[in-house]
Specification:
132 residues, Oxidized Rhodanese, domain 1, 5 strands, globular
C-alpha cells in the first residue's frame, strides 16, 4: 500500500507560522538578553556541538519538548514552569514553528520562534556560545 499524505510538512509549518508569533532575528537578539525570555534550542546535540548555540539558551531536543513541558510527565523540566516568554529556535525555523505551535496548544504562553533559526542568527552576527 502506498501512503497518501494529505498534508505536507511545508503546509504544517505554514499553518504553525500563521498561528504563533514569529520574531525576526533582530528582535530575537534584543530579547535574548532579557530576563523575562527563555531561549529554547531544539536542535540535537550533534548540531549544538558542531555550530554552538545562542548564549544562555536552554537545550531541549525536539523529541522531548512535549514531555518536558507537561508538569504531569515524569520527564517535566522546571524551566518550562516560569512566567516568561519562551522563544524557540532550530536550524532554519521549521522545527521551531511546529514546536511553538505544539507548546502553545499545550497551554504554554507566551511563545514565539525565530524566523530563519540559528542559521539566520549566526549569519547576521548573533553571539554564539560553543558547546562541549
Amino acid at each position: 500500500m502506498v501512503q497518501n499524505i494529505t498534508k505536507s510538512v511545508k503546509q504544517m509549518v505554514a499553518d504553525a507560522n500563521a498561528d504563533v508569533t514569529t520574531l525576526s532575528v533582530e528582535d530575537a537578539k534584543e530579547l535574548a538578553c532579557s530576563d523575562d525570555h527563555v531561549m529554547i534550542d531544539l536542535r540535537d546535540f550533534r548540531e549544538l556541538k558542531r555550530t554552538g548555540k545562542i548564549p544562555g539558551a536552554f537545550s531541549c531536543p525536539r523529541g522531548m519538548l512535549e514531555f518536558w513541558i507537561d508538569p504531569d510527565s515524569p520527564y517535566h523540566k522546571d524551566i518550562f514552569n516560569q512566567d516568561k516568554t519562551y522563544v524557540f529556535y532550530c536550524a532554519s525555523g521549521w522545527r521551531s514553528a511546529l514546536s511553538a505551535k505544539a507548546a502553545q496548544d499545550m497551554g504554554l504562553k507566551p511563545v514565539a520562534h525565530i524566523e530563519g533559526g540559528f542559521t539566520a542568527w549566526a549569519e547576521t552576527g548573533g553571539s554564539v556560545e560553543a558547546v562541549e
